[in-house]
Structure formats: C-alpha cells, structure tokens
Design brief:
The protein is of the alpha/beta class. The chain has 4 helices and 4 strands, in the order E-H-E-H-E-E-H-H.
Length: 93
Amino acid sequence: MMKKILVVCGAGVATSTVAVKKIEEILAQRGVSAQVDQCKVTEVPYKADAYDLIVTTSLLGAVGDTPVVQTVSFLTGIGIDKDMDRIIELLGV
C-alpha cells in the first residue's frame, strides 16, 4: 500500500507547496513511492488519521497516532538529508 504524507503550513499554500515539491523530488531520487498532499494547519485535526506521516513547517502539537516531523529545512536548504532520512524511517520504507 502506498504511504501517504501530509505537508502542513499556516495557510496551506506557498510554504507547503515548496516543501511538497522538494519531498516528492527527493523521494523519487531515493526510489520511494508516496502520495504527498498539503493543507493548512487548521485542517490537520480532520485529516491526520488518513495519513502515515505529517510534515509541518508550523508549530503543531500531537495529532493522535500520526507521527509528525516539524522542520523548515525544505525552505532553508539546511538539514534536508537528515529530515528526509527521518521521513523515510517513519514511513517504514
């Protein structure tokens, strides 16, 4: 079954779009297949259960059992490899 990642930012537009594109690009380079969607932080409580992992550039508390990776590396370019290693580890692929 394909893994699902939800990328979250404050408004669900600009910041998350940048992160989604970078995550998709790196997953493809590493041979990992995953569905990557985006939303604004206020939508997370309603969507979290449908995803295997949440990646956020905003402050976000616990969301049930769905693991959360909080990062700005996809915006700054610093620490992307470490964050992608963590994302892949949490996906279990």
